[in-house]
Amino acid sequence: MVEAVRLADREGVNGLSMRRLADALGAGAMSLYHYVASKEELLDAMIDVVFEEIEFPPEETDWQSAMRRRAVSARQVLARHPWAIGLMESRTSPGPAHLRHREAVTACLRRAGFPVLMATHANWLLDSYVYGFALQEASLPFGTADEFADMAEDVFLPQLPPDEFPYLNESAAALVAANYDPAEEFIFGLDLILAALEPLRASA
């Protein structure tokens, strides 16, 4: 499975096939069917590898800190495996690592006092945020604050004449001056979500 994940990391999941994987392993395509029965089963196993890399919410801290650590870990893992973003919730035959991760997340929320339904709401909300951010981040044409500043000055600002787009021009110039780092948006949004969930836990 590790080689399949590496192949998807390099070339994307759309180019993955049993024959392509067999070539990468130096084996016959038919020999792979001794281990997995189909590409869908292969994808199940690959997603299980991805889930195994995501840190469980630790038990020795408060629920917000625990879920923050888990969300940060998930974002880092999905940055390494962007092909997995659209597959994380699509598997109908989850593997053992997948199920252990789900159990740990649910246990963290339930032990924190969330009733079953509210824990489900919280889980959906947090996962939607992580996956959505990871998807957006994977498609950005810049990856660092320096790259953003270069693009803002060389690409964005010339397209934003101040007489036509005064607010966008102002924003782009101010962000460059502030050495704005788009990566910091993840924690900003995550902390807002966690703070919004806290009174729902308390009231429940």
Automatic annotation (TrEMBL):
| GO BP annotations, alphabetical order | negative regulation of DNA-templated transcription; response to antibiotic
From the UniProt record, list the coiled-coil ranges. Answer: none
> For this UniProt entry, which segments traverse the membrane?
none
Q: Which keywords appear in this protein's UniProt record, sorted alphabetically?
A: DNA-binding, Repressor, Transcription, Transcription regulation
Molecular function GO labels: DNA-binding transcription factor activity; transcription cis-regulatory region binding
DNA-binding region, as residue ranges, is located at: 17-36
Name recorded for this polypeptide: TetR family transcriptional regulator
Kindly list the organism's lineage: Bacteria, Bacillati, Actinomycetota, Actinomycetes, Micromonosporales
